[in-house]
Design a protein that fits this description.
- The structure holds two protein chains of two kinds.
- Chain A is of the alpha+beta class.
- Chain A has one domain.
- In chain A, 26% of the residues lie in helices and 26% in strands.
- Chain A has a four-stranded antiparallel β-sheet with strand order 1-2-4-3, with helices on one face.
- Chain A is globular, with a radius of gyration of 13 Å.
- By secondary structure, chain B is α+β, with helices and mostly antiparallel strands.
- Chain B has two domains: 332 residues, no CATH class; 95 residues.
- Chain B contains 14 helices and 19 strands.
- In chain B, the strands form three sheets. In chain B, strands 12-13-9-8-1-2-3-7-4-19 form a ten-stranded mixed β-sheet, sandwiched between helices.
- Chain B starts with a helix and ends with a strand.
- In chain B, 50% of the residues are buried.
- The chains are: A alpha+beta, B alpha+beta.
- The interface between A and B is large, with 36 and 43 residues.
Chain lengths: 98, 464
Amino acid sequence: MKIRDAARVIRSKNAGPTQVSLDLMFDDPKLYERALKAPSLRPDVLAQRFGVPEAEVIPYPAAIAIKIVLPRRIIAGTPGDTDVYGAQQHRPLLDIEI
Amino acid sequence: MSNFARVIAAYEREPGPLRILSASGQLGYGVLAKAFQAGLERRPHLIGADMGSVDPGPYYLGAGRMATSRRVSKSDLRQLLMGAVGNGIPLVIGTAGTGGGDPHLAAVVEIVREIAREENMSFRLATIGAEIPKDVVKTAARAGKVRSIGPIPALTDEEVDGASRIVGQMGTEAFIRAIDQDVDVIIAGRACDTAIYTCLPARLGLPMAPAMQMAKIIECASLCCEPGGRDSMLGTLEGESFVLESMNPNRRATPLSVAAHGLYEQADPLSVIEPEGVLHLGDSKFEAVDERRCRVSGARWVPAKQFTVKIEGATRVGARAICVAGSVDPVFIAKADEIIPAVEAIVRELVPPDPAKPYQLFFRFYGLGVVGGQPVTTLPEEIGIIVECIGSDEDEARAVVASCKQYLLHHGFPGRISTAGNTAFPFTPPELTAGDAYRFSVYHIMDVDALEPLFPVSVETVGG
């Protein structure tokens, strides 16, 4: 099953100008658990998929959600940036199989 | 007696629930009047609003400009001043003018004085500066007391000197000093969004954990609701817990929507680092009071052994000019990968870069994978084009994009069928100058021994 079919919200936004935070929010706790266990959402796999040196995956059971934190490839607003707010960095997540 | 002094005296005589109204999470983009008026009817002890952020990028901090228009900023400020001062309610505004530096603070205070004249109002105003002297930052960096946040290089003297200005995020402490100056309104430079709302509970000696968690949520107004929105939000502190309620009856603060808000724009949803301590949220409890109100409890506040201040700085990198175009020609779109370097080579020949400080040139062909994400496997029918140059000055940047415009339009390539022009321009002139370009050069945490000297409070009587 693809993440886009499992999660209700898949979004990205800067957490400060040097990091981007991706949130996966689920309606179904079972799908949340399934995503948490999926090898495709391991930090090293995600880092590789996004082309960054590291990734952090934080379970947030209070909202049945998973947070992924990535270093930005370019600091927000530095010449050459294409997404100052980091609000369109979620695309590579959508088709991940869990 | 000032509004702060009166509210504090009344609360100390008769303690109870403390009502705090978050008028807006982004002052200057329009305060929705209906919800704000509904909030006023709840007789809040404090009205607050945040006015800035690093989110819009380095330009505003560096250039000393506001991201919001003066017109809407002024109407928002008028609404808040009339609602607060007119009703005897203290008003706190944080991160004035987007960047929270001295020019931002001055611009907002000027608008506030103008409103006071126009409305014949008089009040005592405290302003709190947030620009950190460069010597202070350099001394701290040399002593190893400055750390990068995320992937930004360690701070050097050169980088500090190059910054247009450096601001620090003040915490609750600075606002309490302003409150104690017997004022009606506080307008602060760069500040923690939370401190706008924690200063009164902290001054009253109320528990810090629920106050801080409530502040963290209401600073975004009704964003924590289902559906989220920008309407004013009421937070009511009741001992060790607090209750959230949107002032728009169509927005519901549910346990799930409030819990989920903890994720928003945070690298760590379980702890929030403030200058004076850390808020731990791992054991938070969210309970429905009714369909549209939520009670929250369970946060823990651990005061810091070492004060820290987040510092932000922006450095000018040049002047920006852009050119906007589009294309529907399938051959041009298919050969974009070859055309871009060919045009770039011609332009670099026509407008030779200064070897000591070469301009930067970016061809953004929207539709072909600019924003990133997935590789584009099927070519689109239409693309949007932005050519951007960062030159040493406006003249150079404009010259470069004007040449790019001309050679994109007329570039000849094998197989070309649209031989009169490759691109469509939506307006004239197609090249636009966009002022100075900046980058964030400082985004660090600085250990400090004393917060007070960094954030000076000044008081004036406005109007009257």
